[in-house]
Design brief:
Distance between the termini: 42 Å
Strand content: 25-35%
Largest sheet: 10 strands, antiparallel
Shape: globular
């Protein structure tokens, strides 16, 4: 079902900025001196590719509240997919954030029947022939089961990404055209009739609706990345796609039975 057997852990920094679309090209030119388009961007005409994220949370929206309360330790579970890739790649992802440091666990899924892991009451992870108690997949499922976390929101956006040619790990990504909708079970394909735009400048800075992220290992911050920040006078700010989207979902659908409890907490 999947190739990865060991835990995938990346201790990294993620710095976020919001910029106008006009800055994408000059920052891209700067980054291209040290980076190349990642494998998804290199396969598109304009460098942008689509990402769908199915976000999980607990019945009382614990993961959301951790962010709103600015807790030092936060948890995020999602299923990420790349719908326009050659194969419909899906990944189970767990992000554990402590302060500014993020540990990310990621496991690819190749079984088209992966939804049975969540929907089949008789499913047993231990019965799989490739079962590994230390894999990223096992870690995701154990975490989801422990917290009783289920899908709450489906988000979609278009990303342009660069990966460093001179560092072990460093990435520059631009995310734009963010949209969201309430989750419909474990479906990872959005409904065009239900997707709602989230490029609202009231959530960003004036005239800014692109999320720029700079990512690198914690002990290896590239000098060129620091120069990029200084050259374009970038001002770091926090922004969570999940928080922005789920709050709007709860506001729009707060009378639906599935979100009444969280709505009573937030509103």
């Amino acid at each position: 079902m999947f190739e990865e057997t060991a835990l995938t852990i990346r201790k990294r920094y993620e710095s976020k900025f919001v910029i106008p679309k006009e800055m994408i090209e000059p920052i891209s030119r700067f980054a291209s001196i040290y980076c190349s388009p990642d494998k998804y961007s290199s396969n598109t005409d304009n460098g942008f590719y689509c990402i769908n994220n199915l976000h999980f949370d607990t019945p009382d929206y614990l993961f959301l509240m951790q962010r709103l309360d600015k807790c030092n330790r936060r948890l995020h579970l999602r299923i990420r997919s790349y719908p326009h890739s050659g194969k419909y790649h899906c990944f189970l992802e767990v992000k554990e954030k402590t302060g500014d440091i993020i540990n990310k666990y990621r496991a690819p899924l190749y079984d088209e029947n992966w939804r049975r892991m969540f929907e089949d009451q008789d499913y047993s992870l231990c019965e799989e022939k490739d079962f590994d108690p230390n894999s990223s997949k096992t870690h995701f499922l154990k975490t989801a089961y422990f917290y009783n976390a289920t899908p709450k929101m489906l988000s979609q956006y278009w990303r342009k990404a660069y990966v460093s040619n001179v560092n072990e790990y460093a990435r520059v990504t631009f995310d734009t055209d963010l949209r969201y909708q309430p989750a419909e079970g474990y479906c990872i394909i959005p409904d065009e009739n239900k997707l709602v735009p989230l490029d609202d400048e009231t959530l960003f800075a004036p005239e800014c609706n692109v999320i720029l992220e700079l990512k690198c290992y914690t002990m290896q911050v590239p000098l060129w990345m620091i120069d990029l920040i200084r050259h374009f006078n970038l001002q770091r700010r926090g922004f969570s796609k999940y928080v922005a989207g789920i709050i709007n979902v709860l506001q729009l659908y707060k009378y639906d039975s599935g979100v009444r409890q969280a709505s009573s907490v937030l509103f």
